[in-house]
RNA sequence: GGGCCCGUAGCUUAACUGAAUAGAGCAUCUGACUACGGAUCAGAAGGUUGGGGGUUUGAAUCCCUCCGGGCCCA
């Protein structure tokens, strides 16, 4: 790794010149206006060298140039030492990537981790927010896999509670036995329809009661349809066979619908957890905590945890009637998962940032209960997706449905593909598949390129873009390279490692691309450390952009020098495969033609 | 009442965790070969990084304060 070597050389130089050691070597990419690729910021070193920043920079530059063997030239601007790495070194770096098909893929380390994402309710279909959630979780899982982890992808499905009983109640009253088959609707959509139906009826009944002088709060409880839903929830808890049957039938419809959506999204799971089987967990753990003295009981019998020493407040874990709260379940589920997968060192929870407090508390509690792995639990907190009209609200019907959005993206992609007419020899089926790849690529890239922590804006009109900083731009670059490689094969040009050795100098555009290719592994590590697919998205865009610049500046096949020609083909190959790998980390596929 | 997050070009965003003239894309304007794919490339214009103060050789980044937006806990 070039950066590592450079750092070591710089440390040696400082030791030799000033008889001092530097901990932090501040290396950064050189600004475009100066010659060089790596820049050493010399201000901090000037402090220990007891000389001015410029002189310090010059001395280090001189030393490196004569002693290191990798620095060809240097220039000093103010306190910045710009280093020009010799082309031989760049070519060597390229060669090591080229000759290693496993570049950027860490062999299995034996480490294991769990990533949770999606985690929907079963009363309504998936929406735009779930898309961001799923793509993020899936991508982080992919990044960790590439880092050598064995990753277990899970979700917890909120399949019980009043919300699904509302859909059940409405279906019972107005459904007339309607099923996905009889209606031709996707199961999750059908159940969602009855959830809306419930809400509409409930509102009407509340209004009626209010007109009779009942208070709003009372009216909401007394509305007959609400009473029915509550009654069904009680029946469910008593395990009434008829209620359980309807419950599992309707949930079954939803799962079939979700399955179709996940499949199209290209995400999957290794294990599913259901709240109906986990909601009673955790109570024993909490009681154990009371015995151990990490929790305490109040006079009314409720159990609390005191987090004031951690800068938070007191939090209830069991109500006075002994019933659980959400936190209790989450404690139980976390422990269950570590029993199911004893080798995992931690869990990543992909959940919106409104739950930040909840997870902070959860991890603290798990730590107090003595679980070491609590330290390795991470809340992958992401911001809401806003619409130009503001927040998505199901009650106001402003929710962007996941299936609809994917349809729309693919449709735009297909229209564009046909208009450009570059793939005339393709069958309809092939065009469909390609459009799916492009449409979903655009959507995933759009949702992943922004820092997960940030709240993001989704404008349905402007977000469907296929030019510029988008997934299709990168897919296009890949397809274009593939076209070059086909031509090279047809011309019988076959690059090999030996021919690379005959290349002595590089064009600036080539150096830039190699610089980017060389960054892949460190960007991958950074993305893992930060749990941020956005870092990969930014990286792969930069790489594609650099390659396109090279492509425009240098006509590859005009080259008469055979070694150079072969080098450029090899170079294009490596770029394509790096693009392919990086995009795969985002869950995006790249085409051969488009 | 207590706590957390955010504010960067008209819009969407980046900045390697304190470094050079704050990078991109969209939109606007100008240009690109009979050549390997124009979903591309080159260029112009667009910024008091919400306001003010402080620390520092150096601040979008750290501290204080005010303004504006979002979220959580009781």
Give a brief rundown of this model.
This protein has helices at 2-18, 43-49, 53-67, 87-98, 128-146, 162-174, 180-183, 187-211, 216-222, 224-237, 241-265, 275-278, 283-292, 326-340, 356-368, 402-420, 428-448, 460-463, 471-490, 497-500, 508-530, 533-553, 562-585; strands spanning 27-29, 38-41, 71-77, 80-85, 112-116, 150-157, 271-274, 296-297, 303-306, 314-318, 344-352, 378-382, 385-386, 456-457. The protein is an alpha/beta fold and 594 residues long. It is globular and about 90 Å long.
List the helices and strands and how they pair.
Blueprint: H1 2-18, E1 27-29, E2 38-41, H2 43-49, H3 53-67, E3 71-77, E4 80-85, H4 87-98, E5 112-116, H5 128-146, E6 150-157, H6 162-174, H7 180-183, H8 187-211, H9 216-222, H10 224-237, H11 241-265, E7 271-274, H12 275-278, H13 283-292, E8 296-297, E9 303-306, E10 314-318, H14 326-340, E11 344-352, H15 356-368, E12 378-382, E13 385-386, H16 402-420, H17 428-448, E14 456-457, H18 460-463, H19 471-490, H20 497-500, H21 508-530, H22 533-553, H23 562-585
Parallel strand pairs: 5-6, 5-11, 6-7, 11-12, 13-14
Antiparallel strand pairs: 1-2, 2-4, 3-4, 8-9, 9-10
Helix pairs in contact: 1-3, 2-3, 4-21, 5-21, 6-8, 6-10, 8-9, 8-11, 16-17, 19-22, 19-23, 21-22, 21-23, 22-23
The structure holds one RNA strand of 74 nucleotides.
Describe it:
- With about 600 residues, the chain is an alpha/beta fold.
- It is about 55% helix and about 10% strand.
- The chain has 23 helices and 14 strands.
- It has helices spanning about 1-20, 45-50, 55-65, 85-100, 130-145, 160-175, 180-185, 185-210, 215-220, 225-235, 240-265, 275-280, 285-290, 325-340, 355-370, 400-420, 430-450, 460-465, 470-490, 495-500, 510-530, 535-555, 560-585, and strands at about 25-30, 40, 70-75, 80-85, 110-115, 150-155, 270-275, 295, 305, 315-320, 345-350, 380, 385, 455.
- Strands 7-6-5-11-12 form a 5-stranded parallel sheet, sandwiched between helices. Strands 1-2-4-3 form a 4-stranded antiparallel sheet. A 3-stranded antiparallel sheet has the order 8-9-10.
- α15 links the parallel β11 and β12 (about 380).
- α21 runs antiparallel to α22.
- The two termini are about 35 Å apart.
- It binds one RNA strand of 74 nucleotides through β1, α15, α16, β14 and α19.
């Amino acid at each position: 790794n070039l950066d590592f070597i450079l750092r070591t050389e710089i440390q040696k130089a400082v030791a030799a010149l000033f008889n001092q050691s530097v901990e932090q070597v501040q290396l950064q990419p050189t600004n475009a206006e100066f010659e060089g690729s790596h820049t050493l910021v010399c201000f901090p070193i000037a402090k220990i060298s007891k000389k001015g920043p410029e002189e310090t920079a010059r001395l280090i530059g001189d030393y490196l140039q004569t002693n290191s063997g990798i620095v060809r030239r240097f220039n000093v601007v103010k306190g910045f030492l710009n280093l020009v790495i010799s082309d031989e070194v760049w070519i060597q770096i390229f060669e090591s990537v080229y000759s290693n098909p496993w570049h950027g893929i860490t062999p299995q380390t034996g480490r294991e981790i769990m990533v949770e994402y999606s985690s929907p309710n079963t009363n309504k279909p998936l929406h735009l927010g779930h898309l961001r959630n799923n793509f993020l979780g899936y991508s982080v899982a992919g990044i960790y896999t590439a880092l050598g982890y064995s990753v277990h992808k899970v979700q917890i499905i909120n399949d019980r509670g009043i919300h699904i009983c509302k859909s059940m109640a409405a279906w019972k009253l107005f459904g007339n036995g309607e099923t996905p088959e009889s209606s031709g609707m996707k199961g999750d959509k059908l159940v969602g329809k009855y959830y809306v139906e419930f809400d509409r009826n409930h509102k009407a009944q509340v209004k009626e009661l209010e007109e009779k002088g009942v208070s709003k709060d009372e009216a909401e409880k007394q509305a007959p349809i609400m009473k029915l839903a509550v009654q069904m929830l009680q029946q469910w808890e008593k395990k009434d066979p008829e209620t359980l049957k309807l419950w599992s039938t309707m949930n079954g419809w939803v799962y079939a619908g979700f399955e179709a959506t996940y499949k199209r999204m290209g995400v999957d799971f290794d294990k599913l957890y259901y709240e109906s089987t986990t909601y009673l967990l955790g109570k024993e753990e909490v009681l154990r905590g009371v015995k151990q003295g990490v929790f305490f009981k109040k006079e009314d019998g409720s159990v609390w945890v005191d987090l004031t020493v951690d800068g938070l407040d007191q939090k209830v874990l069991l109500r006075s009637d002994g019933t659980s709260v959400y936190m209790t379940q989450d404690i139980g589920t976390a422990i269950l998962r570590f029993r199911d997968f004893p080798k995992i060192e931690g869990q990543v929870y992909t959940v919106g940032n409104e739950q930040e407090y909840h997870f902070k508390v959860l991890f603290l509690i798990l730590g107090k209960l003595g679980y070491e792995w609590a330290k390795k639990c991470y809340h992958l907190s992401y911001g809401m997706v806003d619409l130009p009209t503001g927040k998505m609200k199901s009650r106001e019907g402003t929710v962007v449905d996941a299936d609809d959005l994917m349809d729309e993206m693919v449709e735009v992609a297909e229209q564009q593909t046909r208009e450009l007419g570059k793939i005339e020899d393709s069958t309809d089926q092939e065009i469909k598949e390609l459009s799916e790849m492009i449409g979903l690529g655009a959507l995933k890239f759009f949702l992943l390129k922004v820092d997960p922590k940030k709240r993001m804006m989704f404008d349905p009109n402007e977000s469907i873009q296929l030019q510029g900083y988008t997934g299709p731009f990168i897919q296009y670059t890949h397809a274009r390279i593939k076209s070059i490689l086909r031509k090279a094969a047809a011309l019988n040009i076959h690059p090999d490692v030996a021919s690379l050795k005959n290349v002595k100098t590089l064009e600036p555009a080539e150096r830039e691309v190699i610089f980017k290719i060389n960054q892949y592994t460190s960007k991958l590590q950074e993305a893992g450390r930060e749990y941020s697919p956005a870092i990969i998205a930014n990286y792969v865009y930069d790489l594609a952009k650099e390659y396109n610049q090279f492509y425009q500046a240098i006509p590859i096949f005009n080259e008469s020098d055979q070694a150079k020609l072969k080098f450029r083909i090899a170079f294009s190959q490596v770029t394509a495969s790096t693009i392919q790998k990086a995009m795969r980390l985002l869950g995006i596929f790249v085409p051969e033609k488009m």
